[in-house]
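Hey, resending since the last one bounced:
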Amino acid sequence: MAFWNRRRSLDALGDIEEHKRLKQTLSWPHLVALGVGAIVGTGIYTLTGVGAGLAGPAVILSFLICGVICACAAFCYAEMATLIPAAGSAYTYTYAVLGELLAWIVGWSLILEYTVAAAAVAVGWAGHAEALIVAAHWSIPSELMHGIGSGGLINLPAVFIAAVVTGLLIMGTRESATLNIVLVLIKLAALVLFVVLAMQSFDPALFKPFAPFGYGATAGPDGKNYGVLGAAAIVFFAFYGFDTVSTAAEETINPARNLTIGIVGSMALCTAIYIVVATIAVGAMSYTQFSQSHDAAPLVYILQSLSHGTAAQIVAAAVVIAIPSVILVLMYGQSRIFFVMARDGLLPQRLSTVHKTRGTPVLMTTLTGIVVMIMAATMDLSQIVELANVGTLTAFIAVATCMLVLRVRDPNRPRVFRTPLPWVVGPICILGCLYLAFGLPSLTQHWFLLWNSIGLAVYFLYAMHASRLAKSS
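The structure tokens again:
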């Protein structure tokens, strides 16, 4: 069989050797917390200011656009995850529906979503940690608080938190997911505190002009894209994460019910939270102050400017305590993607070993943690965020396409969850993601093409010949 036609059988996806099967330990509260844990993170705490600087008060529309596109993607994910309750998320769906070559491209792109995003969140966490360190008057050289890409030597706080999360994931899936629930409640409480205090200084006059940079994406002299679309392409980073829930399909108890609740529930909850927080933020401080401020913690910055110093420190502390849940979820998702790719033979199969007692891929989790640490230690947050976005957009397009293809190819297959209005929701997801992809800076698009060129070279030199389907054909 030609490599571009190799597809995994939908009916055979559950046939996994016992020593390579992940243990089922997660219920719907764990899954909702996984989704919220990944979605509500550095994006809303860090990118609210970035988005306001690019779009002005119209950043609210940027969040709304992203929310609609992600809601469509969530419906597609819910159908595919319940139809194919196996680990691997978009990569697995693409392998079963569109074939091995496209699955490799999606899997390779998911590295940008999970690994790169985990590194970005670690850098964002380090920015909040630095604010606490400065407030405590600890004398730590600035060169050790920022990576080479940000003018320093190494970002030690980012490396530290990535190492801690790696250790938690190695301990076990259910243990990590239970801790994640606690961390999610802490950061939601911090957002409630911000909304209550900032609302007291809400000024409708700050919404004029509403869209000072227009509604499209206009390149500025600094290389950034301004306008509603330009901001949407960046703040999109704040939305994704619900797809991580689908990577937990193999470890989910009663996946038919619990996956739907986890994916759709976490997306709906977080969209509402984001729009409320963004509205309060731009109503409490002029967008011009956002654009002039290079603060890595804009919500903390707003509270400080409004003379809520104690509350600002509480929010900063809550972020430092709770944002690691995002890193935990993203690294969890990446380790499972890598694990399944290794199990399929596209990566060395010795990496697809599961710990005998913990039931987790310890070796792959450790490898993922090391990669995240290296990236977080050296790269700049803005560089990382844009690359992570384009990787996620690729995965969303793939899942929506798989959903539509299966509706034509296998319409009678039982579906626990059916995407409403599939021929409306699916195209909105695909076209919306393409819309956001073109709103990213051209340099990011070029880096994405270069990344996938490297990936294709790896596929043709190694994975194409090493895959289990290649050896069995």
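The chain has one domain: 24-472.

Sorry for the duplicate.
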